[in-house]
Specification:
With 212 residues, the protein is mostly helical. It contains nine helices and two strands. Helix 2 runs antiparallel to helix 9, helix 5 runs antiparallel to helix 6 and helix 5 packs antiparallel against helix 9.
């Protein structure tokens, strides 16, 4: 079992097996969640830049999408490692390319829209469901590799780790949205261009880290 996580064995009490999370398990999962959510945090700031008037309900929905994918990817990796490990390892090589293509496309589109709108255009385009979906995939796809880390766990332990990572991601992305909204209010229409540049930078960073 990987030493990065600690998961206590089931406690038998009155004939019922109860799974108990250790403090170190929760702490390590939370720290892993912080590390994995940094890309989503940056993208959340971009979304806040673009929509400084984003409401609480919409903000929670946006952060929830990132949190969902950060829970989905580790579990997907866990399933793949236990079933089609060789195919999964081959697919891992394509992960940086997928993230690069998605974020370059989204970021480039934002930069072009910002340049076409000009400085006098202060109304940044709203985040569409399609763009949000692509952002969620691009910022969480590297979490597939977590499936290797938690491969030795049973389904309950792997699910618990994924949910903790998801909860941390939600909180981190919520903070990113708030920061972005504050900055976006000051930058006005220029926020779209800045946001696009940031997304392109994130895509290049993921690609460089994955390939180099």
């Amino acid at each position: 079992m990987p030493g990065f996580f600690l998961f206590r064995r089931p406690i038998i009490q009155d004939g019922v097996a109860e799974m108990s999370l250790s403090f170190m398990f929760v702490l390590n999962c939370a720290l892993l969640g912080v590390g994995l959510s940094m890309d989503a945090f940056s993208v959340s700031m971009v979304n806040g830049l673009n929509e400084p008037r984003m409401g609480v309900r919409r903000g929670c929905a946006v952060a929830g999408v990132y949190a969902f994918f950060q829970a989905l990817m580790p579990m997907t990796g866990w399933v793949c490692v236990r079933t089609i490990v060789e195919i999964f390892r081959s697919f891992q090589k394509a992960v940086p390319w997928i993230a690069l293509i998605l974020l370059l496309g989204i970021g480039g589109k934002m930069v072009l829209e910002g340049l076409r709108g000009g400085r006098e255009d202060c109304a940044a385009p709203r985040l569409t469901p399609g763009a949000l979906f692509l952002q969620g995939v691009a910022t969480s796809i590297d979490a597939l590799s977590v499936g290797f880390t938690i491969a030795a766990y049973d389904c309950a332990a792997a699910l618990a780790a994924s949910l903790i990572i998801s909860a941390v991601t939600f909180a981190v992305c919520g903070a990113g949205l708030l920061i972005g909204k504050k900055i976006g209010t000051a930058l006005s229409g220029r926020a779209t261009i800045l946001g696009g540049v940031i997304l392109i930078g994130i895509g290049l960073e993921i690609f460089a880290a994955g390939v180099l």
